[in-house]
Amino acid sequence: MAATSLVLDGSTGAPLQEQLAEALRAAILAERLAPGTRLLSTRALSEQLDVSRNTVLNAYSRLLSEGYLVGQTGSGTYVARELPERLLSVRRATARVPERRVDAPALSKRGAAVASMPPLENPAAGMAPGHMAFRMGLPSLDGFPSELWGRLLHTRWQRSWRDLMSHVPAAGHPPLRRAVADYLATARGVRCVPEQVLIVNGTQQALSLAAQVLLDPGDAVWVEDPGYVPAHGALTAAGATRIPVPVDAEGLDVEAGRRLRPDARLAVVTPAHQFPLGVVMSERRRKALLDWAARSDAWVLEDDYDSEFRYEGRPLPALQGLAPDARVLYTGTFSKVLSPALRLGYLVVPEALVDAFCAARRYIDRHSPILDQAVLADFITQGHFSRHVRRMRVLYAARQQVLVEAARRELRGLLDVEPLHTGMHLVGWLPEGRDDREASERAAKAGLVANPLSAFRLHGQGRGALLLGYACVPEKELVEGVSRLARALR
Q1: Is 53 exposed, middle or buried (0-12, 13-18, 19+ CB in 10 A)?
Q2: What is d(CA 406, CA 478) in angstroms, rounded to the nearest whole number?
Q3: Contact (Cβ atoms closer than 8 angstroms) between residue 331 and residue 303
Q4: Would you list the domain boundaries of the chain?
Q5: Burial of 22 by CB count in 10 Å (0-12 exposed, 13-18 middle, 19+ buried)?
Q6: Beta carbons of 319 and 329 less than 8 angstroms apart
Q7: CA nearest 379: which of 342, 330, 349?
Q8: Nearest Cα to 415, choosing from 480, 474, 488?
Q9: With 487 labelled, which of 38, 271, 286, 398 sits at a CA distance of 20 to 30 A?
Q10: Nearest Cα to 425, choosing from 360, 347, 368, 478?
């Protein structure tokens, strides 16, 4: 190998050892240095190139570690006979395999049932990211504490990156479990110790775990109607039978559930802020639901998806905390408070079920990303989470008021929008007989996202409505959105 074939340029700013390593790699790949070629010694090459010996040593070391070179003790350094590119890429098949037409996939019965479920309508699909009005379930992106999160991320990585490169318990990062348990005890009246808290990848995984551990194929499950449709996929995948139970001004109608299927094994409810109607389950209904679960040897899964955002008065405590022996599993998410991209939530289970749930989680995906868990634990324990919730509560209350006032000015006779004391969206009721799916399509053509209420109903007909999210929408865009919606509905 002639040194003249290696060109190094000290004026480029790139380290000489990197330039040398890249030049040698290029020569090897172009076969100017054939497999098995013996390279010059580091001393000889450094003299020919007029660079330090350390420069050559570092370049050789890099290519040795990447597999382009091999060292032979007492003999020297050689070009590897098998290059990394050949070892990391598959050889293309030369024999032609006869093509066979597959008419239909061989799905299990449960797989076929899941595949046949209608997808949740998403009028936002394909829209430009700038169109935010009136998307639901998305927190304020401009309110996310990005700089603070970045600092916490950097600090946590610098302090404990070695610990974060290994596995954690299936139940989650212990400091985060303690932080969540403390927070829930104070903010929601949940009765638990850290050992009962499982960190999960959001509410959907919590529902899947509960269905897997608690249900057998054919078991009946009460679901709210209208209700959170994505939950039904987890139930269907478990082979459960969904029993739609009507919701009125007091929340889930427990007596109706008793009449429909008193032998149900599970009830999935959103008592703090029913999705999508926004009603709060009355104390009478809460007691009736807990009594049914206790008498029927059944379970209640309490989805507390956005209880942080209440704008008047004190919230009712969580169902889980109403009795020390309540047969309730409690789940919540950080998607609505921080970001859905974070994919972190929590599931609080009775002590007798902890081992079973941990085992089920272990065989699904082991645990949630550890670095995200560690940073979130710091975010909570250092007081940032509580401050962020307080700021967002003020912001969302103001945005709801802007939406209500604009709707009263411009949507009179087209959409009846009344304020709520909780949540991140409002229900806009259409005039009797108006098709909310057709209204939703009109809104989509105007660049707006307004889910029809009928998409969340399983049985029965009811007055049409549009669901209007406001948490992620700046005030100016809320006003403009209402004007566009008024024109679309006319």
Answers
A1: middle
A2: 8
A3: yes
A4: 14-87, 123-138+387-489, 160-383
A5: middle
A6: no
A7: 342
A8: 488
A9: 398
A10: 478
User: Residue 221 to residues 186, 241, 244: CA-CA distances in angstroms?
Assistant: 31, 6, 8
Q: What are the tens digits of pLDDT across the range 452-464?
A: 999 999 886 789 9
Hunting for tokens 């061989």 — which residue is that? 106
Convert 400-410 to b/e letters by CB count within 10 Å (16 or more is b): bebbbebbeeb
Class of domain 14-87: mainly alpha
* Domain 160-383 is found in CATH 3.40.640.10: yes
Q: Where are the extended beta strands (E) located within 21-89?
A: 69-72, 76-79
- For residue 303, give the 3-state DSSP assignment: strand
**What pTM does this model have?**
0.82
Helix/strand/coil for 355: helix
Give the list of residues 6+ apart from residue 390 with CB closer than 8 angstroms, or none.
none
Distance CA 327, CA 300 (A): 6
Which residue's entry shows tokens 């509410």? Answer: 203
Sequence-separated (6 or more) residues with CB below 8 Å from residue 170: 198, 358, 359, 361, 362, 366, 367
Report CA-CA distances (Å) from 8 to 24, 28, 42, 43, 54: 11, 17, 16, 17, 15
- How far, in Å, are 160, 167, 169 from residue 370 at the CA level? 11, 8, 10
Q: Which two tokens stand for residue 90?
A: 């598959």
pLDDT band at 295 (very low <50, low <70, confident <90, very high): very high
Q: What tokens were used for 49?
A: 């190139």
Q: How far is 327 from 426, CA to CA, in rounded Å?
A: 31
Element (H, E) at 221: strand 220-225
Tell whether the torsion through CA atoms of 381, 387, 392 and 394 is positive or negative. Answer: positive
pLDDT at position 439: 96
Q: What is the C-alpha separation between 489 and 236, in angstroms, rounded?
A: 36
Q: Count of alpha carbons within 13 Å of 463, Cβ hemisphere only?
A: 12
pLDDT at position 410 over 80? yes
Q: What is the pLDDT of residues 242-254, one digit of tens each?
A: 999 999 999 999 9
Q: What share of the chain is helix, strand, coil (3-state, %, to 5)?
A: 45, 15, 45
CB atoms under 10 Å from CB of 36, counted, come to: 10
Q: DSSP letters along 261-290, please?
A: -TT-SEEEE--SS-TTT-PPPPHHHHHHHH
